[in-house]
């Protein structure tokens, strides 16, 4: 029991001396600080994009420009709409969606 009390006073003495002497400041290298600041910024400025190649999976699909130039929408007047693409009709709910922006709308 006496040993534990002795250890406690030693720890308490160290703490009091630490508080009286003040805090020691460690200085970090300016180069290290600048790298720590710049690296996250640079890593977000580089964006890698996949290289596009024509594959079997993309065969028969349309680019955005082709889709807009080869399609049109017919408004039937009763709240129903049809999207025509290369002569095929597809029923759609509403032409007020971003993917149909720029497509001609004809009223029936």
- Please tally the helical runs, counting DSSP H or I stretches of 4 or more residues: 3
What is the percent of helical residues?
Answer: 25-40%
Total E-strand runs: 4
Question: What is the percentage of strand-forming residues?
Answer: 15-25%
| SS content category | alpha+beta
Low-confidence stretches: none
| Main sheet attributes: strand count, strand direction, barrel closure | 4 strands, mixed
Order of helices and strands: HHHEEEE
Structural account:
It is a single chain. The protein is an alpha+beta fold and 108 residues long. Helix content is 39%, strand content 18%. It contains three helices and four strands; from the N terminus they run αααββββ. The chain has helices spanning 2-21, 30-45, 64-69; strands spanning 71-75, 81-85, 88-92, 104-107. It has a four-stranded mixed beta sheet. The radius of gyration is 35 Å and the shape is elongated. It starts with a helix and ends with a strand. 1% of the residues are buried.
């Amino acid at each position: 029991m006496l040993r534990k009390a002795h250890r406690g006073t030693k720890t308490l003495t160290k703490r009091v001396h630490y508080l009286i002497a003040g805090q020691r400041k460690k200085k970090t290298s300016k180069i290290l600080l600048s790298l720590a600041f710049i690296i996250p910024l640079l890593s977000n400025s580089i964006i890698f994009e996949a290289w596009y190649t024509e594959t079997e999976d993309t065969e028969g699909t349309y680019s955005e420009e082709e889709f807009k130039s080869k399609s049109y929408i017919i408004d039937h007047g009763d709240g129903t709409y049809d999207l025509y693409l290369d002569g095929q009709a597809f029923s759609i709910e509403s032409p007020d969606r971003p993917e149909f922006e720029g497509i001609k709308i004809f009223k029936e």
